[in-house]
Amino acid sequence: MKIADIEVAWIQLPLAEGRGLSGGPITHSTDVICRVTTSDGVEGIGEARGAPLPMISSAIVEVLRPLLLGQDAAATQHLWTTMAQALLHDDGTPRNAAWTRNAALGAIAAVDLALWEAKAKAAGLSVCRLLGGQPRPMRAYCSAGFLTDGQPPEEMAQETLEEMHERGFRATKIRVGRGGPDVSAARVRAMRGALGPDGQIMVDANQAWSTEEAIEHARAMEPYDLTWLEEPLPSPGRPHRGTKETRDWDAETGRLGTSTSIPIASGENHVTLAETRDLVDKGHVRYVQFDCIKNGGLTEFAKVAAYCEAKGVALAPHHVPHFHVQIAAAYPQTEWIEVFDNAKQHVAWLDLFPDYPQTRNGHIEVLDRPGWGFTLNEPFLRERGTLVHWRR
Ligand SMILES: [Mg+2]
User: Fold this and answer.
1) What residues contact residue 163 under an 8 Å CB cut-off, 6+ apart?
2) Angle at CA of residue 150, ends 149 and 152, nearest 5°
3) Cβ atoms 316, 297 nearer than 8 A
């Protein structure tokens, strides 16, 4: 099963409504789509996101494609190492100074995921079954409650509740991180009031705070029985927002964790196995939110999952449920899938993948068909996307 071709396209579509996060709104739905075709005619799809799309695409087409053509498509670990060595120095910096590390990791992720799908399809198995899992509906939460200037918290809570009811969610994640602790408390109080005592609420600060601020916000939100507080502090190497201050944020996450009764979740911006190890070891997080689309694909995810299991830490992967539900269902310590796929939030996904996994009764299905279980709407990609290297 040799690699016969690697194709790349990207798509960027405006959202009907911006998704307000603490650092500003997300205004577009953006994805790099990678397709691997083998000498047997098997096709696998991978996806990347989170860095300039042309940069990820160039890394695949200019560096990875010439390197991988003709190689054994099933040798995913070997190829992962080959790709990492081609794009990154040993210290993790990109070999091409014009590219970012995240773009390199996204490129590796897209190709790695496509290779895994080709391997699963060749075996006639879903990715979940290939990994030893048993497809079953996975508990999911409704990712919502975005920050909209001037919107009263009660209105945010009501909108979120209506979105939850559409698909039977009993858990939701809402955004915080703008305004003082009183604003954070008002948002979770409104959500708890709308949802009642039984539903579950997570909050996501998207790296908004310093440790001292995070402790204050956490204490203000403690009375409202939160399932987790997500990404309160910057990711490794980043400064505290609006300053040049950097610290060992994983150690600071650990300090925060001992200062509040709210469990801490983090990891969507911990981009390697080593960074995630440090988060688990120093940060005392309850939930790790590794993102296989941003960060090195399934090959890296599997190692993160094994480390988390050994350490007794739960998995709650970040975003892209159509990939993560297939993968995470194979790991018993997965507690939550983030469902983030309504038409307002991700216009590209529902059009690109028309047989998208369905969410009912607060659980998202694991498609029990070979590979990821969904197909690519190629005419849509051709019409709306930018074909960087795609067969005519
Ligand atoms: Mg988050």
Assistant:
1) 142, 144, 169, 172, 342
2) 120
3) no
According to CATH, the topology of domain 130-364 is TIM Barrel (3.20.20)
Beta strand pairing status for 314-315 and 287-288? parallel
The rounded Å distance from CA 71 to ligand 1 centre is: 36
- According to CATH, where is 3.30.390.10 located in the chain? 3-123+377-389
CA 206 to ligand 1 center in whole angstroms: 6
Any residues with CB less than 8 A from the CB of 315 and at least 6 apart, and which? 287, 288, 289, 290, 304, 305, 308, 328, 331, 333, 334, 335
Give the CATH fold of the 3-123+377-389 domain.
Enolase-like; domain 1 (3.30.390)
Q: How far apart are CA 221 and CA 260, in angstroms?
A: 10
The amino acid sitting at 144 is: A
Calculate the CA 196 to chain-centre distance. Answer: 28
Count of CB atoms situated within 10 Å of the CB of 385: 21
Identify any residues that bridge with 43 across adjacent strands, giving them in sequence order.
37
Mean pLDDT value across the chain: 95
Return the number of other C-beta atoms located less than 10 Å from residue 234's C-beta: 23
Local structure of residue 141 (DSSP, 8 states): E
Centroid of ligand 1 to alpha carbon of 229 (angstroms): 10
Residue 177 DSSP code: -
Listed residues: CB within 5 A of ion ligand 1: 204
C-alpha 210 to ligand 1 mean position (Å) = 16
pLDDT in tens, 336-367: 999 986 766 777 888 999 999 999 999 999 99
pLDDT digits (tens, 9 = 90+) for 217-265: 999 999 999 999 999 999 998 999 889 999 999 999 999 999 999 999 9
Distance 2 CA to ligand 1 centre (A): 37
The string of DSSP letters for 78-120 reads HHHHHHHHHHB-TTS-BSSTTS-HHHHHHHHHHHHHHHHHHHH
pLDDT in tens, 41-81: 999 999 998 779 999 999 999 999 999 999 999 999 999 99
pTM over 0.90: yes
